[in-house]
Amino acid sequence: MNTALSPDQRAVLLLQAMTLEEKVELMTGDQGEGPGGFYNGPIERLGIPELSMADATGGIGSRGWLLPETADTATQMPVNLALAATWDPQRARDYAGVVGDEARQTGHEVLLGPNSDPTRNPFWGRQAESASEDPELNSAMVVPFVQEVQERGVIANLKHYAAYTQEVNRGIGQNVIVDERALREVHVAAYEAAIREANLGSVMCAFNKVNGVYACENRQLLTEFLREQMGFTGFVLTDFGASHSTEGSIQAGLDMETGIDVFYGQALLRAVQEGRVPEALVDQSVLRILRTMFDRGIFDNDYSLTSIPVAEHGAVAREVQEDAITLLKNEGETLPLNEDEVDSIAVIGADATVPGALGGSAYVLPTYEVSLLDAMRARGREIGADVRYEQGNDPVNSATMIEPADMTAIPSSVLRPERGIGDGLTARYFPNADWSGATGLTRTEAQVLYDTGFTSSPAFANLIAFQSPPTPILAGLSPAGTGNQSVRYTGSLVAPSTGSYTLGGTGWGEARVWLDDQLVVEMTGEDGRRDVRSSALELQAGQEYRLRVEYTQNRPLVALQPGTFVLQWSTPEDAVAPSVARAAQAAGSSDVAVVYVRTYEGEERDRVSLKLPQNAEQLIREVTEANPNTVVVLGSGGAVTMPWLDEAPAVLQSYYGGQEEGNALATILFGDEDPSGHLPVSYPRSEDELPPGVQNPWLDDIDVEFSEGVNVGYRGYLAGNVDPLFAFGHGLSYSEFQLDRLRVDNNIRVTGSDDTVDVRARLRNTGDRDGTEVVQVYLGPLPGGIDSPPLKLAGFAKVDLGSGDRQQVRITLDRRDFSYWDAEADEWVVPTGQVPVYVGTSAVDVELAGAVRVRN
Question: Can you give the pTM of this predicted structure?
Answer without folding.
Answer: 0.97
